[in-house]
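Researcher: Final request for today, and then I'll write up notes for the group meeting. The sequence and the SMILES for adenosine-5'-triphosphate follow.
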Amino acid sequence: MIEARGLRKTFGAGASAFEAVRGIDVVVRRGEAFGFLGPNGAGKSSTMRMVAAVSPISGGELRILGLDPATDGPSIRARIGVCPQEDTLDNELDVWENLFIYGRYFGLPRAVVRERAEELLEFAKLTDKAKSRVEELSGGMKRRLTIARSLINRPDLLLLDEPTTGLDPQARHLLWDQLFRLKQAGVTLVLTTHYMDEAEQLCDRLVVMDKGVIVAEGAPGELIRTYSTREVAELRFAVGEEDNEVMAEKIADLADRLEVLPDRILVYADDGESVLAAALDRGLRPVASLVRRSSLEDVFLRLTGRTLVD
Amino acid sequence: MTVPTGSAALGLRDGTLRQADYWAALWRRTWRGVLATSFLSPLLYVLALGVLLGGFIKADPARMEGATSYLAFVVPGLIAAHAMQLAVGEATYPVMGMIKWRPTYQAMLATPLQARHVVAAHLTTIALHLAAATGIYMLVMVPFGVYATWWGASLAWLTQIGVGMAFAVWIYGITCRLRNEEGFGLIFRLGVFPMFLFSGAFFPVANLGRVGAAIARCTPLWQGVNLSRMLTIDHITWWIAAINAGVIVLLLVGGWRWAHTGLERRMIT
Ligand SMILES: Nc1ncnc2c1ncn2[C@@H]1O[C@H](COP(=O)(O)OP(=O)(O)OP(=O)(O)O)[C@@H](O)[C@H]1O
Ligand SMILES: [Mg+2]
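Model: Predicted protein-adenosine-5'-triphosphate complex:
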């Protein structure tokens, strides 16, 4: 569905030029859910906009649905659905009109768009809001409307730029559920996120992006196995105690790897509980401790030395 | 991999028509106000300038470019000037709004529509607005007996729409190239306002002296004022009419390019 080789995006020219995407290779296959995981400014949106055929590429190669966005932009856009990071709903129109008018841009007959608009309102659980103005919707409702709108042309490929950012946990789970249903229906999903749980839940495969480059690629479980241990023990010490660095030295030999963060120490080991017990034996007295499974957050930390959400 | 479906480019007409429902939806919300003001402002203008001020002016038709009364002289000028103001108004703030303050164009351009379709549809709605506003203006003037012939009045109407659109396309292109709305003040103060006063709408440009008249005759507004006046009072010098019409057409053709390349540059980054 998507093939990118050495894909680049540069904004501006000359001395002020800024390279947001610095040569990435990505292949997305039909029917899969593919994710771009990365912190703010990683270049996720810039990549998504190129894939959506609304932003010209600055270098490399890009094929979407086998087509070249530089020459076949309209044909590509006719067959994809796009949910941009910032909602682009029309505040002057009501909910139903937002769907209807957008559908008309695809050249669909009025009767067809009417029918689909009803279906999609149902899908987005917005039927009783059909005549409301967009301004009156909550953030989660707007997001659901944007996703519903992106489906009006029955796309083969759906691009979602941070579909759940800013939503409360309940709204997020509702959206995940809807995205999962789309995936079951055979729609190829490409999404960006900086939530690792979202990536783990939704993505078959993902790339971790940082500063315009891809730092790792694989299935979520695969990435965790490759770049982290099975478990992590987190130790938090009281303020004013010895430096975290000094603490860490005392237990360095117990773990496969240690990460010293300003507020806690992460101890990577396959058996977190026994490491924690051993640390306590050596006289460490954390004010709080927990043992958990490794997550994509740990993968990211390992690869970039930084946390995902700061 | 999917096989390319063959990418027949979306035609300008088809792409423009796809936006008809959008513009109709906006129009449904605003038409009452638009129509009301379309009636009111010509009535007030013609009362103040044509009837009350014109009552003082008794000049020889030869000094009024052939018009038999000041009212007959000033009406085509008023309508052309009105068309210019309306067109500039429509091609500044509303366009900047759809570029910057609201994501209208952004949403459109995420669909198969291209910048030229989006621009064509927006300009078409401006043309329709101009047609309605100048048409009403001209109809309101019928009882005042200012039209020599019905065909001249009809061609004058097309001229008013044409000169309005000549402004619309160029200002649209400028708006696309402006970073923000601060430049609009300059357009209004240094472009629209002097042209409004000195392009022959209210008095013959000959009164400006040789140099002044020559400058006035270079403005786009004068082409519309002069052509529509010749047509409404049926006092036509055909070679001048041809130049007026030719300039308007050239402005439209060049401005169309300027407008849609402007939006492409602004939105496709
Ligand atoms: N139109 C633009 N002009 C100039 N720079 C831009 C533009 N769009 C993005 N950038 C820059 O490109 C970099 C990558 O931005 P991008 O929006 O792709 O990041 P992102 O991964 O989507 O981040 P976030 O998680 O915050 O959405 C940023 O440093 C940003 O400032
Ligand atoms: Mg982004």
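Model: The radius of gyration of chain B is 20 Å. The mean pLDDT of chain B is 91.
Researcher: Thanks, that's everything.
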